[in-house]
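Batch job 17 of 40 flagged for manual review because the log was empty.
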Amino acid sequence: MKSQYYNRHHNQTVVNSSLQSNKINIILIGTFIMVKLLVAGCLSIQFIGHWMNYYNQTGNSYPTSLPWINNKSECEHRGREWQGGKCWDSEHNMLF
């Protein structure tokens, strides 16, 4: 009888330690996944912020000369500005 009690008690101890081990594994895996998601979220926010900043900068206008327009009257007729013997477009976008 003592041996049955010991075996039953021993089996419960093994099962309990196995359940405890599984709980620890689940907690560790869950923590690992949460950290990965947090890092991925932070990197995504930085990436989006970088691209928003890039498009804000490239949305600005940068004057450029238009080499195919070579006289003042044609330049001004097109709504551009004639300066220094060149026709300047002040609404030029860097992405153009």
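Reviewer: the log was empty due to a logging misconfiguration, but the result itself is present. Residues 58 and 94 are 6 Å apart (CA to CA). Unflagging and moving on to job 18.
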